[in-house]
Fold this protein.
Amino acid sequence: MNRIPRIISLFLGAEAILYLGFLTLDLTGHSGPTVPLKFGGILLCLIYAALCAHGGGDTLVLPALLFTAAADVFLLVLGRFYSLGVVLFLAAQTCYLLRLRRGGAPTAAWLRLALPLLLALAAFRFGIATPLNLLVCLYFSQLLSNTVLAWYSRKWLFAVGLTLFVGCDVCVGLFNLGLGGALSAVGMWFFYLPSQVLIVLSAKEAFHERS
């Protein structure tokens, strides 16, 4: 077995252990000790993105994962400064937009303008238009736009990863609205870590070719 498949196998094996570990704890009602496992999974994605960038893979996934990990420091580890966490997630989506544009995808400015407007109007309609929620509307609209463009551009692995990211954020929204109960609580990370793993794996092709 050469060096690259071994690295991929180690990465996926470690992520699977962490994933099964925190899902088991979440499903059995012991979510308290899961934070190190969840954040550890994101840090592993960050390390693998750095290896890919260093080896000639996609260089925009690394800053996106840096922003993602930093956002999780506030949203997961500290549980405070949520607005800053959302801004960092928005920065990650900006990196993904640049990645899509570099791959030849259109900007789809109409979509990026229409979606936040529609989401903001919905927030006002349902009486939840707080500054934080409006910021979330902007972030989520950009995630949705990037997901549409990834599918349109046939970036399959990236598209599936972003779609799972959308699933995670839908669960977050349901949970914060008091809907879905334990299902939405578990669903957040059920979708989130696989989404990040697939996104970072989508950065590896050039890494594989050059190594």
